Amino acid sequence: MAQVFHPCCNLTFATEDGVVIVSSEDFCERVGSRWEVPMHKPFAHLRDDPRAAAVDTLLSVDLAGSKVARVLLNIGYPPCLYTDVLLLLKLSAPLNGRDGGWWIVAKSSCNVPLLAGEARP
Q: Which of 1, 17, 66, 108 is most buried, taking the most CB atoms under 10 A from its CB?
């Protein structure tokens, strides 16, 4: 994903304390070490569990013309099943060494429990 995030893209999600904004760079770092994050670490033994992979789903791709799209997908990272909303733009100008193409310009996420009862110390 790091190669297709527009440099100005942020991830947003809501918590009980309000809306959290994470840069795409910070998000990619989090994903790279997700099994070491306190929330996911007790579930690291499930990283190759087929039940988590089975919920990874592309739910929809909605086009708003030829250069704008909204993508909905589910991704399983125990103890959460994330639903992500990606907003994409197709750019024609070169950027970050790429000759245009589709870029994620915004990412929003929410989650529900997934395999939450299978934590290990």
A: 108
